Recover the amino acids of this structure.
């Protein structure tokens, strides 16, 4: 009886390993019911074929990326390193959830590859995962070369994601050689100062301040952009942000709208963004006020919005519907925040008057 059981098990395994689906996959074909092949044994068999270099079809490779587990990481690395752009992209995002320090030697192999594409994809994986342990891997090789700006930008993103402060000198040296804006953005992420950030050592504080001076000059100049403005704000301590607000919130300067845009961008520090948007309600610029009232993702303070009910300046902005005044948008914003009711623009008759009367009671 025991012998019969073993025979049946062996037959079962043999038939599963040589199933029509797997034979089709080895031949480079795509099974008709591919979406049903999600059991661990079949996925492992597909992964083995990928590692061996069998002519697996693109659809099957994408299927593996969509359903792979930690057990198939070697196959995912093969697809990331050698697959088509579409397959490599799928493998990248399949690897992100399972990446840890034990897989860094495999990443290092990619960074040492003769293929530029393989190095580029390895850096992209580091940039998406941001493992602090990857900083040592990046530091062991010269990845910032003025001769290859694209590869250098991806390397900068990886260094920034790892928050590798040891890379400061290499990044600053690269910036001085190239004037590359991406280097400043990377440095701002490395030295990002949030409320909970511990005080820096004196040597690190000097480095941070040196970057801050360069960022201030670039962000506040006439050729600024939202990325530079966001970087300048990111590197500020809360105390420095308050000083900046006291000096500039009520002024007209070239990059004021870019600063407001950066402070409302997805992923920006919510505490800093909320504080800056609230402070810039004191701006004399009607277009800036209009964009704050209409677009800000932050809860604007009622005490900051209420005085704008008396501001009759016209907001001229192509992204805000109609010719509308600051006071109308202030009324619209109060309705949205206080009553959680968003009116279509232009406002219903009497809406502004209602909020002006409401403001007198406050």
């Amino acid at each position: 009886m025991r012998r019969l059981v073993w025979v049946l098990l062996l037959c079962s395994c043999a038939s599963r390993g040589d199933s029509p689906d797997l034979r089709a996959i080895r031949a480079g074909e795509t099974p008709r019911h591919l979406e049903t092949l999600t059991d661990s044994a079949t996925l492992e068999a597909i992964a083995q074929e990928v590692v061996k270099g069998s002519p697996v079809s693109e659809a099957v490779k994408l299927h593996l990326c969509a359903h792979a587990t930690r057990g198939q990481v070697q196959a995912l690395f093969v697809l990331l390193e050698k697959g088509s752009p579409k397959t490599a992209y799928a493998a990248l995002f399949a690897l992100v959830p399972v990446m840890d320090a034990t897989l860094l030697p495999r990443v290092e192999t990619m960074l040492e590859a003769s293929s530029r594409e393989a190095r580029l994809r390895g850096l992209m994986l580091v940039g998406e995962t941001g493992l602090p342990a990857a900083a040592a891997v990046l530091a062991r090789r010269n990845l910032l070369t003025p001769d290859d700006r694209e590869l250098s930008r991806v390397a900068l993103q990886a260094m920034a994601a790892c928050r590798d402060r040891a890379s400061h000198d290499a990044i600053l040296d690269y910036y001085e050689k190239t004037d590359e804006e991406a280097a400043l953005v990377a440095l701002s992420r490395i030295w990002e100062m949030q409320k909970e950030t511990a005080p820096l050592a004196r040597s690190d504080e000097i480095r941070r301040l040196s970057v801050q001076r360069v960022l201030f000059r670039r962000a506040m100049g006439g050729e600024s952009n939202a990325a530079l403005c966001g970087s300048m704000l990111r590197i500020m301590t809360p105390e420095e942000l308050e000083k900046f607000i006291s000096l500039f919130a009520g002024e007209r300067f070239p990059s004021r709208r870019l600063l407001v845009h950066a402070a409302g961008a997805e992923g920006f520090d919510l505490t800093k963004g909320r504080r800056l948007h609230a402070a810039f309600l004191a701006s004399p610029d009607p277009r800036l006020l209009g964009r704050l009232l209409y677009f800000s993702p932050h809860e604007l303070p009622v005490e900051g919005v209420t005085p704008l009910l008396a501001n009759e300046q016209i907001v001229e902005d192509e992204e805000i519907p109609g010719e509308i005044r600051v006071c109308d948008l202030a009324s619209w914003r109060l309705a949205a925040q206080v009553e959680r009711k968003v009116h279509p623009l232009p406002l219903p008759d009497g809406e502004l008057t209602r909020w002006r009367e409401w403001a007198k009671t406050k």
Observations:
- The two ends are 89 Å apart (CA to CA).
- Confidence is low (pLDDT under 50) at residues 4-16.
